[in-house]
Amino acid sequence: MSDLSDIESLDGGSAAHSDVEEQGAVDDGTAAVSYPLHVVYCGNCGLPPEYCEFDAKEFEARCKPWIASNCPWVYPDLFPKGSGGAVEENMKQLDIQDADGEEPKEKPGKKKKGDPEVLLALSTKKGRKSATVITGADLFGIKLDEAAKMFKKRFACGCAVTKNAQQQDTIEVQGDQRREAAELLRDQYNVPEYVIFIMEDKKSKVRAFP
Amino acid sequence: MFKKFSSEVSVSSKAPVKSSVQRQMRARIEEQMPSLNEYMDELLPKKEKVLVVKCEEHVSLLCVEKKMEPLFFCVRDGPYFPTLRLLHMFPHALPRVQVDRGAIKHVMKGADIMCPGLTSPGAAMPVELEQNAIVAVMAEGKQHAVGIGRMKMSTAQIREVNKGVGIENVHHLGDGLFKTITLS
């Protein structure tokens, strides 16, 4: 069974780091060391850098460059100590790899998920009543509560800012106002036509202005 | 426990506690983690408002109103656990056990710690611990804790049985609570 001081001595840390840790191990933090310790977390994944290696994909692509520039001492094998030039070179290489490798990866991902759009859907309420739910308007710099007020006046109906199942803020207008609201968003708030979509029924999404 | 935790979805209410309750909680924490005593004034200052944030599954988090960083958590009226970020700052707050390298990736996915991972050459259990004790789970060759767990068996039992779950994984690196830096 190994002593716990092994844990600390195994870390190939920088002078400052190992200092603090060794003392901590010797007198178990009763004196000399100032707590709280300052812990560095990886700028990419948020874990302590020594644990980055356990997410292989992310590590190669993103954590590695961050570690190289911020705390290369955590991985003495990857970034040998005392060879500052080598580290820099490593980084350069990584940067180049990044530029090559990342772009094609990121773009399709972004299109699928992050492209902002305004979606107008109809949700059924009690009985034969319905409401129009507008999602994503806030992504175009529209203040939702102000917009809701405007909708109230314009359509002479109830309107409020509510949260949907995904915890996004949405505008809910009473009644089926999908077309009218789409036009209003375009004319009054200058939301580009091509980002406004209407849900015709549960599944089919159509452009509001084809 | 906190695998799917997120501050938007899991939190059901936040409320400041009475100062008398605050004193009680502080006393309980000091009793459980005596090594934190001298830092308690920094962590939960007497004059600051302490919030109890109630979450799913009867979990409540403690934090100071100004900073809103989760510091401790407990389940129902159970013992208080420090959060991992707090444990990283005060590594001596809990007794430690060490798992071998092969166990790390599973612990980081939320798996309970199996006995063989605690008895193999890379692992260590330097202190004798009782069942239900709260421990910091360290990892072979790593400086910081990988998780916080509760002993399902005593250390003696773990050595003897050497099979099955030895420590329940309560909170681990990369889980929802770890990713929640502030609760605002």
UniProtKB/TrEMBL annotation, chain A:
Segments of this protein annotated with the region Disordered: 1-22, 96-115
InterPro entries assigned: DENR/SUI1_TIF (IPR050318), DENR_C (IPR046447), DENR_N (IPR048517), SUI1 (IPR001950), SUI1_dom_sf (IPR036877)
Molecular function (Gene Ontology), one example: translation initiation factor activity
Residue span(s) of domain SUI1: 118-189
Pfam families the UniProt entry points to: DENR_N, SUI1
GO biological process: formation of translation preinitiation complex; translation reinitiation
Name this protein carries in UniProt: Translation machinery-associated protein 22
Organism: Porphyridium purpureum
TrEMBL record, chain B:
Example GO biological process: formation of translation preinitiation complex
Entries under NCBIfam families matching the protein: unchar_dom_2
Record GO terms (molecular function): RNA binding
Segments forming domain PUA: 95-174
Cellular component terms per the entry's GO annotation: cytoplasm
SUPFAM superfamilies, per database record: PUA domain-like
Chief subcellular location: cytoplasm
Pfam families the record matches: Pre-PUA, PUA
SMART domains: PUA (SM00359)
Subcellular compartments: Cytoplasm
Protein keywords: Cytoplasm
CDD domains xref list: MCT1_N, PUA_MCTS-1-like
Domain of life: Eukaryota
Protein name stated in the entry: Malignant T-cell-amplified sequence 1
